[in-house]
Specification:
single chain, alpha+beta, TIM Barrel, Jelly Rolls, ten-stranded mixed beta sheet, eight-stranded parallel β-barrel, about 20% helix, globular
Length: about 650
């Protein structure tokens, strides 16, 4: 949704105290997944200009899309009306979305309805109403301008219309019906392994269907219903295109992570002390239970039914709005911490430690170690104001630092807004599709409520990229950015977004004594691009350096035990000198007794949020990686599996110095 509030530039007042920002190019190295920079419903021009990797078609209207009629029921978004698209060609809406996304350089993501009903149309493709005023009586709202008979389903006394006929404006549609669309997509576009649709999303926010689509699903969906639907539809998708990636469950937010639709509806009516659906499943939280069920179903099917674990998240304290009062701007600055900070209590009715990205990754690792994680809807509001832009820049940096795999902002911001430019600063800051780096490294700031910083190496040219987000509402801030374990070559380029709403190339700044001295304007996003002197790579004869199948020893047995960490000192072995900063290695796991993953990080550093190698029980899995060495020349390995053991083999082929 485009926001129309005016740009309010906050004048710089007194200078803020100076701060120190520390960047260490040798610590916390991890891949940043480019698909975190996605949007929903981006046009071809916007996708190209934002250099946007993924484009999502989602939202309430997609839950009841009828691919044969090329029409959808808009649900609670617009008076529960079934409305035709312009074209009567079957599947045209999806095909056009795929075509336009591809033309903009993006991977399209399409939503497959699973709710069990799709739109139907009247004569000559006319609209139909689920809550006709002529049939069900006067209601508190209606589409008075375009379709006056379409009511909002709320009687004048305040009660919902109940007992309506879902066939008034919809048709039953099961998984066999939707498989016809899957087959159409496969026949039209090919396999996901080549030119076909890669991402198939399983519906939208099912735990609130009883609200958003109460014309066809007035009773909240149970845990078992969603489990059965996901298994059914995922099996059909994989039968049509085994290379397709299934995305779900697309739950709406915090309550939808823990409680089924049935329990959310029951709790809102009868109190939250007793929740029948939860109780019938042994008190299990909804999404972790669902993850376990789908993991079991995948094992029974002999292949993965679910590839991307996706949720939606909107801050609940009023941030998702045009409100740019001082108090709301400050709250917007703070509340991005709900995405990562284990010490931050979300300040709304949630009143809990959200730490969303880590939570999703931990759930996925426990119940489905090969699952990717995604936040496929989010929005922090104030799109037309610089405060919305600094929040957006903060969010993208957090997604990259915390190891999220995919994200799609709801929706693509208007090209005239600062929020749009905040996204472009990451993906196309110079108009030549130059980007923020793809290998994240450590960046620390003293106070994330007033300043955030993110750093990454760019593998295409070896540059170090640093984004600094000044959240201060007023006053410039002197800053020193100290660069460790990086050999800078020449001055740093500087690109900056302020309340003037333009990405401006500033004069280059010197890198002196391994540091950049700068002054940051209030409410700004600044990108520093530092060319690297480059590290040298030296090969060594292929050498097995770790094998836990061997007799007990520093680089041998025993096997890695569930939940344990073990440090292996690699420097001084296999021709790797003590001056090496990283090694090129192949890691192999054998004989895992349970599903799990390995996290590998420099010794004497904190545990990162990313895994390096995921595996299932009994599998032999391998992965190539560049392992950054810690202070003692070693790496620490965390064996994240619920029980049992796993063996690790590490073969090295070279090192960086």
């Amino acid at each position: 949704m485009g926001l129309v509030c005016a740009l309010l530039a906050v004048p710089a007042l007194a200078q803020n105290p100076p701060i120190q920002i520390a960047v260490d190019a040798a610590l916390d190295r991890h891949a940043i997944h480019p698909e975190i920079y996605g949007v929903a419903f981006g046009s071809t021009a916007v996708l190209s200009d934002l250099n946007c990797p993924v484009n999502r078609s989602g939202g309430n209207a997609t839950s009841q899309y009828n691919w044969q009629l090329n029409a959808s029921n808009r649900g609670n978004d617009w008076y529960f009306e079934s409305i035709a698209e312009t074209s009567a060609t079957a599947g045209e809406s999806g095909d056009t979305f795929i075509s336009q996304s591809r033309a903009g350089g993006s991977q399209p993501m399409l939503t497959i309805p699973t709710i069990g009903w799709v739109a139907k149309l009247g004569p000559a493709r006319s609209k139909l109403a689920s809550f006709s005023i002529a049939k069900y009586g006067a209601q508190t709202g209606n589409d008075w301008q375009w379709f006056p008979d379409a009511g909002n389903g709320v009687l004048t006394g305040g009660a919902f219309v109940t007992g309506n006929d879902p066939n008034d404006a919809n048709l039953p549609a099961d998984s066999a019906f939707e498989q016809g669309w899957m087959q159409h997509l496969f026949s039209t576009w090919g396999s996901a392994s080549s030119t076909g649709l890669r991402y198939y999303i399983l519906d939208n926010e099912p735990s609130i269907w009883h609200s958003t689509h109460r014309d066809v699903h007035p009773t909240g969906a149970t845990m078992q219903e969603i489990r059965d639907k996901m298994v059914d539809y995922a099996n059909r998708i994989k039968s049509v295109d085994p290379a397709a990636l299934v995305v779900g469950p697309e739950e709406w937010g915090w309550s939808g992570y823990f409680y089924s639709g049935y329990d959310q509806q029951y709790g809102s009516l009868h109190g939250w002390g007793t929740l029948p659906d939860r109780n019938s499943h042994g008190g299990a939280d909804y999404l972790p239970w669902l993850l376990g069920q789908l993991s079991t179903a995948s094992a029974a099917a002999g292949h993965s039914l679910w590839d991307v674990f996706s949720v939606h998240y909107y801050p609940q304290g009023g941030e998702f709005s045009d409100d740019v009062s001082t108090s709301m701007q400050l709250r917007r600055n703070r509340s991005t911490r709900s995405l990562w900070d284990p010490s931050y209590v979300e300040e709304s009715w949630i009143n809990d430690f959200v730490r969303l990205v880590a939570r999703l990754r931990q759930w996925a690792a426990l119940y489905g170690p090969n699952l990717r994680t995604a936040i496929t809807e989010y929005n922090w509001g104030a799109e037309g104001h610089i405060n919305g832009a600094t929040a957006q820049a903060d969010i993208l940096g957090i997604f990259g630092r915390e190891g999220l795999d995919l994200a799609a902002r709801w929706t693509a911001p208007a090209a005239s807004t600062p929020t749009y430019n905040a996204m472009r600063l990451y993906r196309n800051y110079d108009g030549n599709k130059s980007t923020f780096g793809d290998i994240g490294v450590r960046a620390t700031v003293p106070d994330p409520d007033t300043m955030s910083a993110f750093a990454a190496l760019r593998t295409s040219d070896g540059a170090l990229t640093v984004i600094v987000v000044s959240k201060n509402l007023s006053g410039s801030t002197p800053a020193t950015i100290a660069l460790s374990n990086f050999s800078a070559r020449g001055a740093a380029q500087v690109w900056q977004l302020t309340s003037a709403n333009a990405i401006t190339r500033l004069a280059d700044v010197a890198v002196s004594g391994g540091a950049i001295a700068t002054t940051l304007p209030p409410q700004s996003v600044t990108l520093f691009v530092v060319a690297g002197g480059g590290a040298s790579f030296y090969t060594v004869p292929p050498c097995r350096i770790v094998d836990t199948r061997l007799s007990p020893g520093l680089l041998g047995g025993p096997a890695l035990a569930a939940g344990s960490t073990r440090t292996f000192v690699l420097a001084g072995q296999c021709g790797i000198p003590s001056t090496a900063v990283s090694v090129a290695a192949n890691l192999t796991v054998t004989a895992p007794t349970a599903d799990g993953h390995l996290t590998v990080y420099p010794d004497a550093t904190s545990l990162p949020g990313t895994s390096l190698l995921n595996f299932r029980a009994g599998q032999i899995r391998a992965n190539n990686a560049v392992l950054t060495l810690g202070a003692s020349g070693g790496v620490t390995v965390l064996a994240a599996l619920p029980s049992g053991t796993v063996h690790l083999l590490v073969d090295v082929a070279g090192y960086f110095q």
